[in-house]
Specification:
heterodimer; A: 217 residues; mainly alpha; MetI-like fold; 8 helices; B: 209 residues; alpha/beta; 2 domains; five-stranded parallel beta sheet; globular; binds adenosine-5'-triphosphate; binds magnesium ion
Chain lengths: 217, 209
């Protein structure tokens, strides 16, 4: 059995690499974009706000799986547009679009939970808007949103397995292929263990981050 | 001297302050008293530039003055609920604006802050966060934070309302004591005893029917 595990491990590990690539690239793009969109969602400029609300509604209101299929199989069929993404880019595009919407909502909530008095008290001290944002608002919002961001980060690890449907060789696919070929359950068990290990590591890191911010209330 | 000339303030089409005229002399303690809803907080928000006035003008030392745009820090405010920055220590709360706005270097800002901290009996609390302070201590930090910007005028909205009744005399003592720093103080209160204790001058405001 140990021999068998070592036999399939390389393909599982290459699957993990793909999974982690999607995971990190999605986070790297969608967190900053989510901050920007979150600020836009509380903007007083109505058209911008309306467009962003519509975008968030679409992204959160429909399944990520559908969005993936739409980007990869749907866009090339669209008359007049015919955007063809390579598989990996299509997956990344759909994930970034989807997760940006979730992060935007989280940041919007965080921003709105800062009482107006904080802005006013900064204003009578003559701090500029940017200084207020950087020194007072952002640190408070970060602390508020970390638990929700953490939830989404854990979800992202598991959601990344959806790329399976557009034929990307991620961890789940690697396990499933081995399991079907060799008619054994073992690869799937290994896949489960790897996912659990990944989420356990992330949970640990997130706890540490939360703890780091517990020096004030 | 700060002169309020025919100040009018409306919210929508409701007039809150109508044609108010008053003089506030340098270094005096002016108490603004009146029943709830009379527009005391609104007046303070106008003086400190948080609200635009709809009519009249402010004149500071003979020159017209617009609190909403004045670059330099003329008016400091101690809010009813203090509004300290919870993510910053006592020292950082105090030195933030002097460093960023007045461009003081860190040492200068901290040295000045320390003087005020000692003066208001906050020594030893420099590295605590606001949640670790009592109400009275929070208020004193808010006062120091306002004073650190060297304002000409400092406004208090209901300085006794968020505190234990037996801290009232302590607040009165602090306010009277601050006269020696030459700052002009405007105190909003509906506590007449307190007003009588600290006021050099009183301004009555009444709700507009
Ligand atoms: N942002 C606002 N928009 C509309 N109306 C307002 C606003 N703020 C205050 N008002 C109204 O203005 C009036 C005066 O309010 P203000 O808070 O200035 O009274 P106050 O004298 O400070 O009362 P209190 O002693 O209860 O604090 C009230 O009738 C209030 O409803
Ligand atoms: Mg009031």
């Amino acid at each position: 059995m140990l021999n068998y595990i070592f036999e399939i491990l390389p393909s599982l590990l290459s699957g993990v690499t793909t999974t982690l690539q999607i995971f990190f690239l999605t986070l790297i793009f969608s967190i900053p974009l989510g901050i920007i969109a979150g600020v836009g969602l509380i903007s007083k400029f109505k058209p911008l706000k309306a467009v962003l609300e519509f975008y968030v509604w679409i992204m959160r209101g429909s399944p990520l799986l559908l969005q993936l299929i739409f980007v990869f199989y749907g866009l090339p069929m669209m008359p007049g547009i015919q955007i063809v993404f390579p598989r990996f880019d299509a997956a990344l595009f759909a994930f970034i679009l989807n997760y940006t919407a979730y992060f935007a909502e989280i940041f919007r909530g965080g921003l709105q939970s800062i009482p107006n008095g904080q802005y006013e008290s900064a204003r009578v001290l003559r701090l500029s808007y940017w200084q207020t944002f950087r020194k007072i608002i952002v640190p408070q919002v970060v602390k508020i949103v970390i638990p929700s961001i953490g939830n989404e980060v854990i979800n992202l690890v598991k959601d990344s397995s959806l790329v399976y449907v557009i034929g990307i060789g991620d961890l789940l696919r690697a396990g499933n292929v081995a399991s079907a070929r060799d008619v054994t359950l073992l690869p799937l068990v290994l896949v489960a263990i790897i996912y659990l290990a990944l989420t356990a590591i992330l949970t640990f890191i997130l706890r540490r981050v939360e703890k780091h911010f517990s020096y004030w209330k | 001297m700060l002169e309020l000339k025919n100040i009018t303030k409306k919210y929508g089409n409701r007039t809150i302050i109508n044609d108010l005229t008053a003089n506030i002399k340098d270094n005096e303690i002016m108490c603004i008293v009146g029943p709830s809803g009379a527009g005391k907080t609104t007046l303070l928000r106008c003086i400190s530039g948080l609200e635009k006035i709809d009519g009249g003008q402010f004149i500071l030392d003979g020159k017209q003055f617009d609190p909403t745009t004045s670059e330099n820090n003329v008016v400091g405010v101690v809010f009813q609920d203090f509004q300290l920055f919870p993510n910053l220590t006592v020292m950082q709360n105090i030195t933030l604006a002097p460093e960023l706005v007045l461009k003081q270097d860190k040492q200068t800002a901290q040295r000045k802050a320390q003087e005020l901290i000692n003066q208001l009996n906050l020594d030893g609390k420099e590295s605590l966060y606001p949640y670790q302070l009592s109400g009275g201590q929070k208020q004193r930090v808010a006062i120091v934070r306002a004073l650190a910007m060297n304002p000409k005028i400092i406004c208090y909205d209901e300085p006794t309302s968020a505190l234990d009744p037996n801290l009232r005399d302590e607040v009165a003592r602090i306010i009277i004591d601050l006269k020696k720093t030459k700052v002009t103080q405007i105190v909003i209160t509906h506590d007449m005893d307190f007003a009588k204790k600290v006021a050099d001058n009183m301004l009555q405001v009444q709700p507009i029917k």
